[in-house]
């Protein structure tokens, strides 16, 4: 059997036989178990332990699970909310499609874990959109391949990818499937962090996909990272390739977000407080920071249950190369021979952002440690058809607030939906 493009299609509208939990259910039980049960309700703990499809079902929304095989054999899982629960809830009606793509170490859970009032996936469904949520190769929901084993100690071949492959291979496969299944020719794209990076990779390397995009809403857009000020990433950046090589030599291709080194880092860099100590031990908060004003501590178990969701070491290394080299280039394989074999040049070529001609809306903030304003401005100048830069009107708004802030709907999502509907009329 040849795996060209999309071959596997699975749709489950009811629960599986063997229940699947969230990625970090044991972490949730350790940090927020019975001894701390009084602090968090059983309802919150349940949300932390359910996987994405069951979490969506719990809140009364329709959900479909689809699997797509890429040309290089990765099996990706997508989650679809085809219509709303309270509004725009007619099944089988043709609706504008929106495709949501998560960031580094995350999954489709990003768009639903905060519940129907704040989760962008639910909000868009109520606003009349056919919502598709992707999962990049290597995360909890897309940790499968037709022949490679992600858990092999003998070979790390499964993990030999960065966000270059996610943009160049995964996104086209998932977008094509979403359009074919929904019967539409174009869709809206919303990407957070690495979800925006992958989009810029796709539309620069495969510019024909620009024609399939009504609008691209980039939340905390990441391409250039030369002005990055995060101390952890700055420390790792000069040694990005060496770390990947070392990890490969000892049989590790996956980035291990819950490893002891990050627990140590959290204990070293953060005050030992009841609520905030666990935050510091989680790699996402260690890299992205947190905003106490906008952090809903009640949902901490849910956030820890679903993130981190897994990634390849090369994904982090690729960002490290961008920080060290101050360029937006393809992955550096570490030698002239390897680069020439991959690209035909001794050094990795830059992504030609002038080929990104889809309408791009860049939503940024003042306090984002991973998408510094200077870097967003460089991105804006190089894009082929940028609509504008749109600042979130809160000075303390940071990288993770684009997903989890208490006031994220009024500060950001309402604006995003307004621009999407404006583009709908023009499509």
Automatic annotation (TrEMBL):
It comes from Bombyx mori (Silk moth). Residues 52-114 form the Partial AB-hydrolase lipase domain. The active site is at residues 193, 368, 399. This is Lipase. GO terms for biological process: lipid catabolic process. Belongs to the AB hydrolase superfamily. Lipase family. The keyword Hydrolase applies. Keywords: Glycoprotein, Hydrolase, Lipid degradation, Lipid metabolism, Signal.
């Amino acid at each position: 059997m040849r795996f060209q493009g999309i071959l596997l299609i699975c749709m489950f509208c009811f629960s599986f036989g063997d229940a699947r939990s969230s990625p970090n259910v044991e972490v949730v039980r350790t940090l927020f178990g019975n001894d701390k049960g009084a602090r968090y309700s059983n309802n919150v703990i349940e949300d932390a332990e359910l996987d994405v499809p069951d979490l969506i079902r719990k809140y009364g929304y329709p959900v479909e699970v689809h699997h797509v095989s890429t040309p290089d054999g990765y099996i990706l899982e997508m989650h679809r909310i085809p219509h709303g629960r309270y509004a725009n809830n007619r099944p089988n009606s043709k609706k504008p499609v929106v495709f949501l793509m998560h960031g580094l170490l995350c999954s489709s859970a990003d768009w639903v874990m905060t519940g129907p009032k704040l989760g962008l996936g639910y909000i868009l469904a109520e606003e009349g959109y056919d919502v598709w949520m992707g999962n990049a190769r290597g995360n909890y929901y897309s940790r499968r391949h037709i022949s490679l084993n992600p858990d092999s100690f003998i070979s790390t071949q499964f993990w030999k990818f960065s966000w270059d492959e996610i943009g160049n291979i995964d996104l086209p496969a998932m977008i094509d499937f979403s359009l074919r299944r929904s019967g539409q020719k174009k869709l809206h794209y919303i990407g957070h962090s690495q979800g925006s990076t992958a989009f810029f990779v796709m539309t620069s390397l495969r510019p024909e996909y620009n024609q399939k995009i009504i609008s691209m809403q980039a939340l905390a857009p990441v391409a250039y990272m030369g002005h990055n000020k995060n101390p952890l990433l700055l420390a790792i950046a000069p040694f990005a390739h060496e770390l990947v090589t070392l990890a490969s030599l000892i049989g590790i291709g996956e980035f291990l977000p819950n490893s002891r080194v990050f627990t140590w880092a959290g204990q070293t860099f953060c005050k030992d407080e009841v609520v905030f100590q666990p935050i510091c031990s989680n790699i996402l908060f260690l890299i992205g920071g947190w905003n106490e004003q906008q952090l809903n501590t009640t949902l901490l178990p849910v956030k820890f249950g679903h993130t981190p969701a897994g990634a390849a070491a090369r994904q982090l290394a690729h960002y490290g190369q961008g920080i060290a080299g101050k360029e937006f280039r393809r992955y550096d394989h570490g030698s002239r021979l390897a680069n020439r074999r991959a690209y035909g040049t001794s050094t990795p070529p830059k992504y030609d952002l002038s080929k990104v001609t889809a309408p791009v809306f860049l939503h940024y903030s003042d306090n984002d440690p991973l998408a510094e304003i200077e870097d967003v401005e460089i991105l804006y100048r190089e894009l082929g058809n940028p609509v504008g830069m749109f600042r979130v009107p809160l000075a303390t708004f940071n990288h993770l607030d684009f997903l989890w802030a208490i006031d994220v709907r009024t500060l950001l999502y309402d604006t995003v939906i307004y621009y999407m509907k404006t583009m709908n009329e023009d499509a």
